[in-house]
Write a structure and sequence with these properties.
The protein has about 200 residues and is mainly alpha-helical. The protein is built from 10 helices and 2 strands.
């Protein structure tokens, strides 16, 4: 999608690709977090002026929310597919291996955008932290529902705790993001996945 904003000195509109600009903003937020990303960082990466950014995306908070939508749609798409696995163990494996691929890929910075932003936000950006927490809660609820169904279907042992398993898996994935951001190798993260699967209850 292209949008024309900000007339050039000759009176001709300057065009830029909104999707490409948003992808560039996502990379900035992902690497620096919400508070760490300055307007200068964003406009430089997006290749647009500050008035153009406001006209196309609104303020910084609105831009971040649009970037977070893109992050969930593209980078976290594996999560939705993981929930479709026929077993709870399959769900866990798909989630952890999906996280592994994202953390060790070359298309973005290491670490998790939602983790970075929820931890880094101070009081002046409380609404951003609330947005991130709300999105994370929705994902955790979907995972809990899946594990509760697995227990009802007998896929998980009768003494299994769906809440505990979903919290454990979330913690492992967040830990992978933090470790990747700190420079952990793919082999180290793969070992964490294998160990977690070896400890998984049931089939």
């Amino acid at each position: 999608m292209e949008i024309s904003l900000c007339s050039s000195p000759k009176g001709r509109p300057r065009e830029f690709d909104v999707d490409q600009a948003l992808a560039a903003a996502l990379r900035v937020f992902w690497s620096k977090g919400y508070e760490g990303a300055s307007m200068a960082d964003l406009t430089d990466a997006m290749g647009i002026t500050k008035p153009s950014l406001y006209a196309a995306f609104g303020n910084k908070e609105a831009l971040f929310n649009k970037a977070l939508d893109l992050y969930q749609a593209e980078k976290l798409a594996y999560m939705g597919r993981a929930l479709e696995a026929p077993t709870a163990r399959g769900v866990a494996e798909r989630l952890m291996r999906g996280a592994l691929e994202m953390q060790t890929g070359t298309e973005g910075p290491c670490g998790c955008l939602s983790v970075i932003s929820s931890v880094a936000c101070g009081s002046e950006a409380e609404s951003i932290r609330e947005q991130v927490v709300a999105r994370s809660a929705a994902a955790k609820k979907a995972l809990l529902d899946r594990f509760e169904r697995a227990k009802i279907e007998g896929d998980l042992p009768a003494d299994a705790d769906p809440q505990g398993l979903s919290s454990y898996l979330t913690a492992v994935m967040q830990g992978m993001a933090v470790q990747a951001g700190a420079g952990a190798s793919r082999a180290e993260l793969e070992r964490l996945v294998e160990t977690s699967l070896a400890l998984w209850p049931g089939k």
